[in-house]
Request: fold
Amino acid sequence: MSKIKVCYFSPTGGTLQVAKHLAESMSKILCAEVEYHSYTLPKEREVMPVFDAGDIIIWATPVYAGRIPNKTLDYVRNSIHADGNLSVALVTFGNRAYDNALAELVGLMEDGGMQTVGAAAMVTRHVFSDTLGASRPNKDDIFALENFAAKVVEKIQSFSNDKVPAIKVSGESHPDKYYTPLKSTNAPASFLKAKPSCDSERCIRCGKCLNICPMGSISNVGGVPMFDGICIKCQACRLKCPAQVIAFTDPDYHSHIAMLEQNFSSPKQAEFYIVGE
Reply:
């Protein structure tokens, strides 16, 4: 029997939470086994997913600066080699906007031989902020996601032996720019090279942060983490630190958070697309 295969990038767990709910909702209707393939960590990106004939694929990623995270883009492009598999594209965003991310993901999936029957953009908590998108997805989001799952399954069953027309989603499928973050003054915020730091006096030397960096950029120096590589601002180390001693101090970074919380506090709605609708 075919499986539902979920491929995901989820440094802080929010994207995986949504992808799991979507996959499990679909599996209940289809009575299909769900299999997960993470490409969050460097070692996981050494392995390419395998798609068998008849497998249904869910590809899930958070939105970074309005697009797919650029440090994962080559992996996504190189690992999508399907043979007409029916699929669902899923992006999560922190209540600002998903811009071109969903269209970009759909484009990569279709370029790689997948047939996209559904696409969704779900709101999750913004990893920069304690308030932006807090408590999302909520009950209404989950209800909408379950309805979406049912419609996707209905389409999958109707397209069992037919070629699926191209799905239409908001955004550009081949964007060439990322969203430019702004400060609270609306001037461009420059924190691309900003890195977190650790309060060594309060660090409990548990080593947890060393194993959760998607870029493998945290080393151990005398039991204290050192942030000496590429940082994609995913916040995994900061949010998962049990002692809460990891922080970003860059002023542009904090000014950008203030801008987000000031301008994007009104709850955004999840958006769903079904092929042919």
